[in-house]
Design goal:
There is one protein chain. The chain has about 170 residues and is mainly α. Helices cover about 80% and strands about 0% of the residues. It has 9 helices and no strands.
Amino acid sequence: MIYLPLIIPGIALLTNLDFVMIKLGLNGRYFGIIVVHSLFCLPYAIKLLSDNFNLVGPQYAQASQNLGATRWQTFWQITLPLSKNGLQGAIMMTYIVSMTQYLATLLVGEGNYLTLAVRMFPFTQAGKYQLAAIYAIVFMLVTLLPLFLIDSWLTRQRRRQANGISVERG
């Protein structure tokens, strides 16, 4: 069920989802846009996180609990730190997918919420390719710059931790 938004064509899903949002009174509301974006982003996040959790495996959590840690301590001190790469990938992927959801934002938001993707679309439809290209460059910067900053910050954090561990050993 989680992967259905990836399998069903987006326009078919969106037209039916727009009808449901109207029935629920969420059409034209910010919360409705969050719900729709989550629906499209969730499959990517779940796939990345589940693959990462499978790579980590249950052995560390079992060892932690065998040594007396509670389930919450095990999650916060063992599982979550070991899953940082998968979590980082899931956050980045959902951010990218959400940024590109122009039709979902336009339909469910009823044109009340203008994102860069929504603003760029009319220029491409009208043949104003120079304006569309400018928006595309801004769109790429807005999408890639935060991802680059997050990635470089996390890389610095990992290096600091690695240097701290090597200093303790030496």
